[in-house]
Amino acid sequence: MLDIVILSIGGIYIILVLVTLGMFRLPKSYSAKDEELPTVSVIISAKNEEIDLPKCIVSLEKLDYPKEKLQIVLVDDKSTDQTGAIIENAAQRNPHFISLTTENAPEVGLKAKARGISWGIKNSQSEWILITDADGEVPPLWARHMLSRVDKNTGMIGGMLSVKPSSLIGIFERISWGYTLPFAFGMAGWGASFICVGPNMGIRRSIYEDKGGLENVAFDVAEDLALFRMVESSSYNFRSYVTPETTILLNPVPSLKHLWSQQRRWLGGGFEGGWKYGIPLILAFSYLTAYSFFQITGWFYALEATISIVLIRLLGDAFILAEKRILLKKTHLFRYLPIQWLYGTLTMVWLPISLLFDSKIRWRGEGYEIKYDK
């Protein structure tokens, strides 16, 4: 069992050190001057978001960005609640806001969020496109910082996410994002292509149009990964930020069922990147699933080794929380350490097993769902 403990220490901490150093290697965003900034359209696709959308709109109204260079495009994706009326009212009081609905959009085979994003981009004009979600709140300097370091070679930008810990589900979701994103951003710090994050990303319009838009890219559920592949197949590069000004705050999903569906969607969508991302994903999840499985079962036959491995895992999780505290200035994170360990361990065991027995991914909530067989 000592060998298992040593292997755990080696594997976990080598990865954590690399990820941490990578995140600190990323350039910091800054508050760019007006004359340095490009034109930008912010696209939000909303379906039955009458609860969260008003706060999102308020945060968008507070954006510190030259109004003559800014469009806010709000798309009502066939909502059955007051989402459409909320969008109309926002457009009436803000000249730089645009109100759209997918009711009169041509059928191009897109579903869910991709349908609204595609229609929003088609009806906007700007050099850059920023995308966020209707349940998110952007910082006032978000657009200014996100576009602060783009140059003629930049094709895609991305920022971090956090979730309001306003409920137990919110804490679980906050942990999920907080544990997953540092790995993507950490590897970006070492020059790897950035795996974009749907609620907080941007793409150069010319790339999107050259590739024919989302309707001409093959994908099942991950429209953000489809946008990523557009840039990856071009000559442009990626820009990633880990700063408070580029971090979007999300409202938590309404139920554990929604959260599980979301995480199955994350994993399933990850395989849409092809073998280059699928193989590392399989290797990483195989390692973490075996590691987590031992943390659950080891108490019955290898008590001392299990205690050692759990302590190693807790120290590793604390390491991740510490780097987020430094980079994002997020305080009060360590209170979630025991929950992060428990939820993370159970999820790493449950998630791949659930996909193994049920390869269909359903998009729960907001009135629609997507199903596909892997």
Order of helices and strands: HEHEHEHEEHEEHEHHEEHHHH
Number of domains: 2
Give the strand content: 5-15%
Give the CATH level 1 class of the largest domain.
Answer: Alpha Beta
CA-atom Rg in angstroms: 21 Å
CATH architecture verdict of the largest domain? Alpha-Beta Complex
CATH superfamily of the largest domain: Spore Coat Polysaccharide Biosynthesis Protein SpsA, Chain A
CATH topology of the largest domain: Spore Coat Polysaccharide Biosynthesis Protein SpsA, Chain A
What is the topology, as strand order, of the major beta sheet? 3-2-1-4-8-6-9
- Report the total helices: 12
Overall 3D shape: globular
Largest β sheet strand count, sense and barrel closure: 7 strands, mixed
Structural class of the secondary elements? Answer: alpha/beta
Q: How much helicity do the residues have? A: 40-55%
Q: How confident overall, as mean pLDDT? A: 84
N-to-C CA distance = 37 Å
* Beta-strand segment tally: 10
Q: Could you name the ranges where pLDDT drops below 50 across 5 or more consecutive residues?
A: 364-374
Labels describing this entry:
globular; 10 strands; alpha/beta; 374 residues; 3-stranded mixed sheet; Spore Coat Polysaccharide Biosynthesis Protein SpsA, Chain A; single chain; disordered C terminus; 12 helices; 7-stranded mixed sheet
